[in-house]
């Protein structure tokens, strides 16, 4: 009976990837595809020269950064990373990834900054402020950015809009795709 239970547990762990508390670190090959789902809060996604993903959190007002959980697994040729748990407010999460990464990220609410990431970017939020450092606008073959309500600043692409249902699309000769969307709030491409 005990060996059957251990077998079932090992199958479950293998099928769901692995979970770990923070700080978290795992190898990740540059040029790979990363699909992230990160809990709400202040989130920084930073490209680095390292061949690994790391996640750390800080909590303001002296609260400990406990009860966070990071899950990582391979699925359909991409690495899936989920960050959940922790205190309900005053949380800053920093995710460091290889600079050369195709990034898909979904964060429900908060203040999100994406910087120093070279590759395709597909980033969405329900509400809050999203700032994406795009680098050279000529590096993009296709860009679409939108907000349902709020401000949309796309200075590298010559766009600036405010109000309801604001968006723009651009095509170019570059290599990468950029999709950025905020339901309600501020979207800044810089």
Based on Cα principal axes, name the global outline. Answer: globular
What is the strand tally?
13
Q: What structural class results from the helix and strand content? A: mainly beta
Sheet having the most strands: 13 strands, mixed
Q: Give the helices and strands as they follow along the chain.
A: HEEEEEEEEEEEEE
| Poorly predicted runs of 5 or more residues | 1-16
Round the Cα radius of gyration to an integer and report it. Answer: 18 Å
The proportion of residues forming helix, as a percent range, comes to: under 10%
How many helices? The count is 1
Tally of domains: 1
Mean pLDDT across every amino acid position: 88
How widely separated are the two ends?
Answer: 59 Å
Strand content: over 45%
Q: Would you mind describing this structure in some detail?
A:
The structure is a single chain. By secondary structure, the protein is mainly beta. It has one domain (2-189). It is built from one helix and 13 strands. It is globular. 29% of the residues are buried. The model is unreliable at 1-16 (pLDDT under 50).
